[in-house]
Each structure stands twice: as structure tokens, then as C-alpha cells.
Amino acid sequence: MWYFAWMLGVGFALLLAIMNAMWGENEAARAQQDDEENGEFHESLP
């Protein structure tokens, strides 16, 4: 049954990685939108 816990752990780690990437993309887009609304321009990091 150890493999069941292992698969749950891997699945949870993948879920966290995907959610972290989605959050980062959203934050970058939100910061850019806020800057455009305020008339500011900052070059985003790659």
C-alpha cells in the first residue's frame, strides 16, 4: 500500500506546482494591468 501514498504525494506535488505556475502568471498579468491603468510602464522580467 506504500505505492498508494506515494502516488498521492506525487499527485499533490504536481497540483501544487501547477497552481503555483498559474498564480505566478496571474500576478504578472495583474501587475501589468495595474501599471497600464496608472500610466506606468515597467519591463516585466522573463
From TrEMBL:
This is Membrane protein. The lineage of its organism: Bacteria, Pseudomonadati, Pseudomonadota, Betaproteobacteria, Burkholderiales. Pfam families: YbgT_YccB. It comes from the Bacteria. It comes from Janthinobacterium lividum. Keywords: Plasmid.
